């Protein structure tokens, strides 16, 4: 896991191949290029029932989402901006993280979270990104210093779906690098703690 952290991506809309979905795929490709394993939940995968705290039954898509997030060493969230904030699709998926409240690693505890916002206008990108940061903090995640805000009113994709804007490409590179690097640093820290615990146990056994 130290060498191959799992980075899980959440993003997209009800429309396949949306801007936010393409940005997320590009970010995950950059994580994979740095040696990470990736797992993506796009708009279709996030088309799940509305979260209800009193409902304990979960459908297959929801169970797959929570299982993926539990395995994640790092997370990337990409949301379109709907009326100045995150989409209902993304917010609903994140509400289900409450199922991880009793986990040893509660919610997104100890995991870097890269954030991407794509909206029609710079004001909407800013407010959507701020909301994503607020949600990540509430879920005990660590937002990466680099976040990516994309004004979807400005064409940035070529006909083949690749990003033609050099600035956004650079930002996605930095975001991916930060998520993967933090995941590896966290894994090394946990490994060193386990080794230290093992050495202490060995010392105690030898003293006895």
Automatic annotation (TrEMBL):
InterPro entries: Flavoprotein-like_sf, FMN_Rdtase-like_dom, NAD(P)H-dep_reductase
Superkingdom as given in the UniProt entry: Bacteria
SUPFAM superfamilies noted in UniProt: Flavoproteins
NADPH-dependent FMN reductase-like domain: residues covered: 7-151
Annotated protein name in UniProt: NAD(P)H-dependent oxidoreductase
Organism the protein comes from: Sphingomonas colocasiae
């Amino acid at each position: 896991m130290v060498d191959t952290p799992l980075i899980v991506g959440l993003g997209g809309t009800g429309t396949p191949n949306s801007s936010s979905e393409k940005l997320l795929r590009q970010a995950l490709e950059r994580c994979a290029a740095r040696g990470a394993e990736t797992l993506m939940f796009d708009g279709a995968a996030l088309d799940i029932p509305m979260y209800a705290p009193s409902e304990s039954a979960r459908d297959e898509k929801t169970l797959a989402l929570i299982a993926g997030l539990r395995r994640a060493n790092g997370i990337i969230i990409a949301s379109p901006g709907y009326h100045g904030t995150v989409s209902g699709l993304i917010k609903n998926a994140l509400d289900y993280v409450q199922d991880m409240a009793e986990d040893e690693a509660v919610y997104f505890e100890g995991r870097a979270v890269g954030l991407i916002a794509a909206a029609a206008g710079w004001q909407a990108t800013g407010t959507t990104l701020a909301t994503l940061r607020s949600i990540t903090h509430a879920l005990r995640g660590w937002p990466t210093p680099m976040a990516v805000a994309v004004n979807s009113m400005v064409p940035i994709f070529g006909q083949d779906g690749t990003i033609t804007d050099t600035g956004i490409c650079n930002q996605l590179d930095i975001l991916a690098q930060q998520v993967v690097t933090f995941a590896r640093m966290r894994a090394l820290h946990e490994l060193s703690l386990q080794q230290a615990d093992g050495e202490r146990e060995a010392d105690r056994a030898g003293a006895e």
